[in-house]
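As a warm-up, study this chain.
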Amino acid sequence: MSISEKNMATPQLSPGVVVREVDLTVGRADNVLSNIGAIAGPFRIGPVEEAIDITNEQDLINTFGKPLSTDRQYEYWMSASSFLSYGGVLKVARADGATLNNANAGAPIGGVGIASTSNIKIKNFDDYQGAYTDITSGWTWAAKNPGTWANNLKVCFIDDFADQTVGFSTVDLKNFGFSVGTGVTWAYSGTTAGIGTTSTTNGYVKGIITGVATNTSTTEQSTIDVKIVSRVQTTGAGATETSIDYAQFDPQSSISKGNTLFAVSSAGINTDNGSGLLGASLITGVTTVSDWYNNQTMNLTNSTIFWKQVASKPTTSKYSSDRSGKNDTLHVVVVDDDGSVTGIQGSILEKSLFLSKGADTVSDVAAPERTFYKDFIAQQSEFLYSGFNVSSATDSYFQTEPTATGFTTFSGVKSQSFTPIGVAGGLWGQDAQGVIFNAIGNVTYPLGGGVDYAASGGTEFKATLGSISNAYDLFSNRDEVDIDYLIMGPGCSAKDESQAKANKLISIAESRKDCVAVISPHRSDVVNVTQNSNQTNNVIEFFSPLNSSSYAVFDSGYKYTFDRFNNSFVYVPCNADVAGLMVRTEIEAFPWFSPAGQQRGVLNNAIKLAYSPKKSQRDVLYEARINSIINQSGTGILLFGDKTGLNFASAFDRINVRRLFLTVEKALEAVANAQLFEFNDEITRANFTNVVEPFLRDVQAKRGLVDFRVICDESNNTPSVVDNNEFRADIFLKPTKSINFVTLTFVATRTGVSFEEVTGRV
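Now compare it with the structure written out below.
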């Protein structure tokens, strides 16, 4: 059906008015340039080989750290910062290195646990998910990304290990059979309120010793840490035992001052039954009782932080309790103990509270958020990954697993079997259903072993050309990553490697055909070179072998700028600034305007140049496809050329033309994508034309085009094209040209000569 046929009036069966609409404006064309730059380099921190969107300098600091003065690493950082100063968004990729290693947990301080036994490099979250979530040995905690930056951090950990700390006047607890894992009992008497009545109950409480501190000095008391397990009620007929939770200083569920404690052997009997420890059955006169958690401090070197100041005691989550699980919650806190990260000793960097040992646990307050500690930390922590299950069989925790299984008598009353708090089935990482999770207590893991890019394990930041190239490959797929500028930043140590790096960026831009690569000369070509003529020759020599491409822009400069982080003045390449000038141009005008000159070409934060070519040198450089950056009196430091890296005469040898076509091509490509799988008929062609032509008229009105024409009809969509399932549109553009050369002729005439006589003769 033709358009005219489709628009014919619908036959009416009775008098009336029919209103019809035919929409030939489906779709729209928009300027789709996003001012997105991309750079890769050996940054101090941050994920490795992962492109991260950075919007401002503070974001850059938070994600990749501050610039360092070593190995000219600051050139990468300052290049990134320079681009951001113009208003663009920057994708940053940290390059890999053969020696990179994550700081990981050493031997634990306090409590129990294991140390990491091997080096480890976790590049990024995908790397962790793919290779490190199902490991059985090697490491417990590791820094979120490689490097020395985390070597002095401490991971402070606590769970529901004990309820009370009990002090005795005696100092030789082992003689009484009191050791870690031993069961203890003590009598209680209390009242139970009923309806109109109050009854007295009697019995005893069972606990497990989780810690023993025997003092050798007779002037100091010894202590034990106790985990409350159950209560046996002896009032009435028979004895009944129930599992209980600790209630602070409740006589029916806790130890009180003055209580007598009985030790229970591994055979399950009281130690006063003649089994070799006659007379050592009990310890009388508990002298002090305190809440275990309230007295716990993080095991730090340079500060004292009580856990109770951070959060209340981790016990059992509602999710676990509802499923008959117990003791699943824990706290994890990252502390800058020596101040190497923040400058302040004892700074708490991050708190992950009330996490769970149960793999299926959901938050009590933020459901359906998962709170299994390994998953939560992997997804939410800025500093940590969790590795080896610290409660697994090789963990020294099993030294504290309760050995008591039952006992025979207590004050002549027959008991029930002793119920341990931790069993082999309580390993972390199970679903919470019916699991009493093991505990390891108050433990601090110091991080260390992180390595930067140096083979010796030092603090060098020299990534190889191969590592840099691999990082830039992250930007090669235009379908996955949207970019407008490939920023070279500094070159490599050797000139030939710098040239190889430049060609790498050019090849990516040529392959994508939707961005430009911005390239500066090798550092030693211009920095600290005394002869201006030598600088010119060096720059030409550097760029001469680079690939010809309209998707590349070459500049001559290194600018001198202030590095406030290291309190020094440094030279950094100008390619990030050139990309930034294109951003500024699009913000202040349109992308098809030239980014050079006094209007839009003045560089930010440039004090001076390592090389400011003179007019005769600029002529030579321009012929060699190189845009000079100069220090112009009264204006400042500015880009003084708008050539692309194309080595032959063409409309595409100008930045403004290349940028015009990138803008138009991206916009119309989006319009063309909307036609996929539609019919190739005159309606689709008309719709396409009706979208494209207004867009091009707008570009023309904004001085980007002199003229244009769109052909999308039967002339180029022939029957053979249609039968081949193709759709063709020919778009002819006459780009506006920028002024590169200005001639001003001043003519002096005699007084009696009219201007008409001499006009056209000079």
